[in-house]
Specification:
Elements (H helix, E strand, L loop, with lengths): L1 H20 L6 H29 L7 H34 L4 H4 L2 H27 L26 H34 L3 H34 L5 H26 L1 H23 L1
Helix pairs in contact: 1-2, 1-8, 2-3, 2-8, 3-5, 3-6, 3-7, 5-6, 6-7, 7-8, 8-9
């Protein structure tokens, strides 16, 4: 688990580093990718250190306040991913469908606003859920999960009306509406691309496909997480563990793999960095 955590940190951080140091990657699309990968690093850091401590401990114990903090950060960062993917979709739409207006629409100010919204809106929504859960009476002290996600609701004697109603509002605002916006945006992109020349179609496929793969991957895991809380069925412990591990293992490694290999400019700089590291290693070996 520690090796996987280090791999997640390194793989995401390397691509963020490449985007930071190369001026030709200082474009809105790459800035959003860097924000998404930074999200993965924070997302993993919220889960892995506590998970490693639990694996090494005879008893897995945490305070309810620490559990709620993990719950808040987990869903804030998870929801912000949908907002960042929505910003990426809009960026591609403007670049492909309105290329002459791109510098005006996707200015540095607007990109900064998109990034602030991507983190601020989810944090405000999830804060209401966390505060509501903090005031709830507990009847169970055994968490059905390896970390504090929707499983915290199973500890409460009765789920309050505030949590139930605002949970639906949060689901619509943070997941459903961004997903619908993304699907609608990519449909417009593909319609315009289909009616355009071969070069435009190629550009659309190269830049949009990685975003769609990440969206599909994260959406499937999010559907599982939401269904566990809403259906309130007793999932088999093994199935619950496997699906939860998919969230914490698979997705944070999937993003850098997709963007590192499938984005042409990032892939080019990554290959150059690896070749430089290989040359340095050979020189040190000879010395």
């Amino acid at each position: 688990m520690f090796t996987l955590y280090i791999l997640i940190i390194c793989s995401n951080s390397i691509i963020v580093y490449l985007i930071c140091i190369h001026k030709n990657l200082h474009e809105p699309m790459y800035i959003f990718i860097a924000a998404l990968l930074l999200n993965c690093v924070l997302y993993s850091t919220i889960i892995y250190p506590k998970l490693l401590i639990d694996f090494l401990s005879e008893k897995q114990v945490t305070s309810y306040s620490a559990c709620l903090f993990q719950f808040f950060m987990f869903y804030t960062l998870g929801s912000s991913e949908f907002f960042l993917l929505a910003a990426m979709a809009y960026d591609r739409y403007v670049a492909i469908c309105k290329p002459l207006q791109y510098p005006t629409i996707m200015s540095k100010t607007n990109v900064s606003i998109f990034l602030v919204i991507a983190w601020l809106v989810p944090s405000c929504h999830i804060a209401v859920q966390a505060i509501g859960s903090a005031e709830a009476k507990l009847c169970d002290f055994n968490l059905k999960g390896i970390f504090c996600n929707n499983a915290v609701y199973t500890l409460q004697c009765e789920r309050s009306r505030l949590i139930t109603v605002f949970g639906v509002v949060a689901l619509l605002d943070l997941v459903i509406f961004p997903m619908l916006f993304i699907v609608f945006t990519y449909m417009n992109i593909f319609i315009v691309s289909y009616q355009s020349c071969k070069e435009i179609r190629k550009k659309a496929a190269e830049t949009c496909l990685p975003h769609l793969l990440v969206l599909i991957s994260f959406s499937c895991l999010s559907i599982y997480d939401v269904s566990i809380a809403r259906v309130e069925s007793d999932f088999p412990k093994t199935a619950r563990l496997i699906m939860t591990l998919q969230i914490v293992l698979y997705h944070p490694l999937f993003n850098p793999f997709i963007y590192g290999l499938n984005m042409k400019e990032i892939s080019k700089h990554l290959k150059r960095l690896l070749s430089q590291a290989k040359i340095i290693s050979c020189i040190n070996t000879e010395c």
